[in-house]
Write a structure and sequence with these properties.
Elements lengths: L8 H9 L3 H8 L3 H9 L6 H14 L5 H7 L5 E6 L13 H16 L3 E5 L16 E5 L6 H8 L3 E5 L10 E4 L1 H14 L5 E5 L5 H17 L5 E3 L6 H12 L7 E4 L2 H13 L9 E4 L4 H5 L5 E4 L2 H16 L8 E4 L2 E3 L15
Parallel strand pairs: 1-2, 1-3, 3-4, 4-5, 5-11, 6-7, 6-8, 8-9, 9-10
Antiparallel strand pairs: 10-12
Helix pairs in contact: 2-3, 2-4, 3-4, 6-13, 8-9, 10-11
């Protein structure tokens, strides 16, 4: 007897509609990407694995989404770009110049390649869901572990490229900076300028960038034989958080004489906090950010910052994604964009004074 033969057609259709690619992956004991490739005839997959996936899909009554089906035929010419959200620390595209520069460059690169870019919002409450949108592929900015954007793009059978790496994943296609090398350059610069006790304002450890930043700082401190001084912000990643960090660090019994932040807005907040406490930057306190922006250049004093070249990240991500969509293997699956230290007044004291004097 054929499974479901006695089941009303409407009920059978409803049951099949609830079967997701994740269910097939679990039943076959493979990844979502492997399921997608097996059902779409893509990738280098052993024939035995391909048969196992198809058997599991048939047994469950799985049917690919409309987006996945469209990829099997003609392309739609649509690419999504999304920024991951961590519960309790929501960040918008317009909150940081870095994101806007990356998206603008990606938009230009997509148009030149004949694609249109769709800005995708938070998927936890979004409707319609991304797997129902007919996109050929997607770019995910700063993915988090088990990122819903990445998962749903893969479930739709769409190509995926991330700017920044998915925490815990060694595979995939991504474009990123060498953050440990860049941060070390900033920290060494602060020491060279007279910093003896360098503190780090840290952000929640949900992205590879955040994890690498704190890990690199702690390793750097250990190599120098100094105790790490880390203040992790809570709430929004804004100037207010940077101000609170500065007040806490500078108000301690053994305050730092240099502060490094991973985001430009946090560094701007540190300047506000130092000013409120009558701490002179840079004569008593050195400040640097590991993200550059027009605001860091225009601040008083101008902030030393690390240029991450988000425009290059966005453009290279689109180039890689278009290759995947059009059936070409990218020249590189992992692209590292170099960084540059921009030395400005906030870390260039004319005459060094110390808060502990």
């Amino acid at each position: 007897m054929v499974a479901g033969a006695s089941m009303p057609r409407a009920m059978l259709a409803e049951r099949m509609a609830h079967v997701r690619i994740t269910d097939v992956a679990a039943a076959a004991g493979v990844s979502i990407t492997t399921v997608s490739h097996a059902l779409n005839g893509k990738g280098r997959i052993p024939e035995e694995t391909r048969r196992r996936v198809r058997t599991a899909a048939e047994a469950l009554g799985y049917r690919p989404s409309s987006a996945a089906r469209s990829l099997g035929g003609r392309r739609t010419g649509l690419i999504s770009i999304s920024l991951s959200q961590d519960e309790g620390h929501c960040v918008g595209m317009s909150d940081f110049a870095y994101f806007l520069q990356l998206v603008n460059a990606a938009t230009t690169a997509a148009i030149k390649s004949g694609y249109a870019l769709i800005l995708s919002s938070d998927l936890t409450n979004a409707s319609p869901r991304l797997e129902q949108l007919p996109v050929d592929g997607g770019i995910v900015i700063d993915p988090i572990a088990d990122d819903p954007h990445v998962t749903r793009l893969e479930a739709a059978g769409a190509a995926v490229v991330t700017t920044g790496r998915v925490p815990g994943r060694s595979n995939g296609y991504w474009v990123d900076n060498d953050h440990p090398k860049g941060l070390t350059r900033v920290l060494d610069h602060l020491v060279a300028q007279g910093g003896e006790r360098v503190a780090l304002v840290s952000i929640p450890l949900t992205t590879t960038y955040a994890v690498e930043t704190e890990d690199t700082y702690r390793r750097w401190s250990a190599e120098r034989g100094t105790d790490p001084l880390v203040f992790c912000v809570s709430g929004g990643l804004t100037e207010a958080a940077g101000l609170a960090a500065a007040e806490s660090l500078l108000g301690s019994a053994d305050p730092p004489d240099a502060i490094c932040t991973p985001l430009d807005r946090l560094a701007l907040g540190v300047l506000l906090g130092a000013s409120a406490m009558n701490v002179s930057v840079p004569d008593e306190l050195l400040v640097a950010a590991v993200t550059n922006s027009e605001a860091t250049r225009a601040s008083r004093p101008p902030l030393t910052a690390l240029e991450l070249y988000p425009q290059q990240l966005g453009a290279r991500a689109v180039e890689m994604l278009v290759d995947l969509i059009e059936g070409r293997e990218p020249a590189e699956s992992h692209v590292v964009v170099p960084t540059r230290l921009l030395k400005r007044r906030s870390s260039n004291p004319a005459g060094r004074r110390t808060l502990r004097a």
